[in-house]
Design goal:
two-stranded antiparallel ribbon; 5-stranded mixed β-sheet; alpha+beta; single chain; 133 residues
Length: 133
């Protein structure tokens, strides 16, 4: 009886351990997504890597729009998608319409310069996500 109970407990523990490993492995898979660059959606590959405070390429997180990259492959100053994150706040549907969709770095900066939105540097959100050709 004790041997059978031990076998059942062992089976449950192993099942939980394998499920946890599978979940971790699945979470570690890169995610394919898109971000904005000069008014066009571009493909990206988001690896499961967090690189806080290491960003060099300017990236804006704009509510209602998504991610907006300031540089891409071929641009002077592109460092492979090591994104230096700025979060936009105070964004309204009117701002998005007024500033051409806010889906390019120049539109985001124009709205910020005009005081329509506020950009806050968030080094804790920096990440690696190279743009795919």
């Amino acid at each position: 009886m004790k041997a059978r109970l031990f076998g059942i407990v062992l089976l449950v523990v192993l099942t939980v351990a394998i499920a946890a490993q599978a979940e971790t492995a699945a979470a570690a898979q890169p995610v394919k997504t898109e971000i904005w660059y000069q008014n066009q959606l571009v493909r990206t590959l988001l690896p499961p890597a967090h690189t806080p405070k290491e960003g060099t390429d300017v990236f804006y997180m704009v509510p209602g729009v998504g991610g907006v990259a300031a540089v891409a492959p071929g641009d002077l100053g592109y460092h492979g998608g090591h994104w230096k994150v700025f979060v936009a706040s105070g964004v309204s549907a009117g701002d998005i319409a007024t500033y051409g969709g806010l889906n390019s770095a120049s539109e985001v900066m124009q709205a910020a310069t005009a005081g329509a939105i506020v950009l806050t540097r968030r080094a804790d959100l920096d990440f690696l996500c190279p743009i795919q050709p």
